[in-house]
Task: structure prediction
Amino acid sequence: SQTIHQWPATLVQPVGSPLSLECTVEGTSNPNLYWYRQAAGRGLQLLFYSVGIGQISSEVPQNLSASRPQDRQFILSSKKLLLSDSGFYLCAWSVGGYTEAFFGQGTRLTVV
Amino acid sequence: KQEVTQIPAALSVPEGENLVLNCSFTDSAIYNLQWFRQDPGKGLTSLLLIQSSQREQTSGRLNASLDKSSGRSTLYIAASQPGDSATYLCAVRPSGNTGKLIFGQGTTLQVKP
Result:
């Protein structure tokens, strides 16, 4: 069966520090991978998606970047965090672009 | 631009009631629609996926319907239980092969014992 892992579960970082959130998927090959952010009082917003290794599409201009160094690994990064980067970050995967999406347990990021 | 709206934002019902959660979307050009459940501080759990060609899907006490032409979906929960308390999110997948989802703001449900 397929599983998705996200870590860390919670993170408190000072403004200006770097960020690296990791997501891995097991039990499937060549999944579509997604990073969403859920900010307080706002809905889930798609940040990045990837349809293959090294293929990253950005949905909104921001202080973050994403990379996919391996087929089932998706990394969200920042060189210098802003207060506005605080939120709940969720990784998701699907087989192709038309099937059911499955989400990880999320990372709660607080920038102080 | 596709927009997804969920009404009501919050709902409180006594245990045992049947209830309906509503989801509407502005652009009928969707590939499918997915309902999720989110417990506080947790990730999303997929409940039901309805393809654009389908009218409804059922899983246990849950039944989701889709009327693509009118831009509406409903999630029906039968015989609600306190364990059903959570936030329910609907999301549409626009036509295209990226698979990205556009979410509503959710309905927070409280089922009282």
About this structure: Chain B touches chain A through 26 residues (CB under 8 Å). The longest strand of chain B covers residues 30-38. The mean pLDDT of chain B is 95. The two ends of chain B are 41 Å apart (CA to CA).
